[in-house]
Design goal:
Helix content: 25-40%
Largest sheet: 8 strands, mixed
Order of helices and strands: EEHHEEEHEHEEH
Distance between the termini: 35 Å
Strand content: 25-35%
Radius of gyration: 16 Å
Number of helices: 5
Shape: globular
Number of strands: 8
């Protein structure tokens, strides 16, 4: 796999949101959500609930960026002046022109506010128009209805379900993962404009 060739200091922003590179110092910016909203990571294999887990989460994300296989962001809500959560590009495959977008979580005060649509617009625009990707893939636990509804609302198409795809945290139960995607032609033909109207 070719290594990722975009700079460490990406900043994506519009009037409502700013996304910048996640750093170790962001532990303080996300600690309140980590300590008070542990249910945020109910469907996550790598959890960030509690200070120790949050530190580990951020360290793993930064290590993946250093290895040029992921690019994690912290999300800042300009309207409230607070940090809202995190998201990232991962499974970056430049020769195939594909990337996954996920590891997305927000504190409860930022859900349902339109913040996610603004983030996804900026990230998809960057993926398709700057990086030149042909496909952006999304995955979720097939039981995570809130996440699936959010992905469909931005224009993702369901491709199918990977059965018994991966373990779940602290359990012998394995999860089914739903796969969704947006293709480059779909972005330019309809998804971009439809999503812009929802901002």
């Amino acid at each position: 796999m070719t290594t990722l060739e975009f700079p460490q200091n990406i900043i994506l922003e519009d009037e409502l949101v700013l996304l910048r590179s996640l750093e170790l110092t962001d532990i303080d910016n996300l600690l309140d959500i980590s300590l008070n909203e542990p249910e945020t990571w109910y469907y996550s294999l790598v959890r960030a609930n509690g200070k120790e887990n949050l530190e580990n989460y951020i360290q793993l994300a930064i290590k993946a960026r250093e290895n040029k296989i992921e690019f994690p962001f912290i999300v800042y809500d300009k309207k409230t002046g607070k940090y809202a959560g995190s998201t990232r590009f991962y499974d970056i495959n430049l020769p195939f022109k594909t990337v996954q977008l996920g590891y997305t979580w927000y504190g409860k005060d930022f859900r349902g506010t339109g913040l996610n649509k603004h983030c996804k617009f900026l990230l998809l625009q960057f993926a398709f128009e700057t990086l030149g990707m042909e496909r952006v893939e999304f995955r979720a636990d097939n039981d995570n209805q809130r996440s699936i509804a959010a992905m469909k609302s931005i224009g993702c198409k369901v491709e199918g379900v990977l059965r018994s795809h991966m373990p779940t945290s602290g359990s012998d139960v394995r999860r089914d993962s739903i796969i969704l995607s947006i293709l480059k032609n779909e972005w330019f033909d309809e998804v971009k404009e439809n999503l812009r109207k929802k901002l």
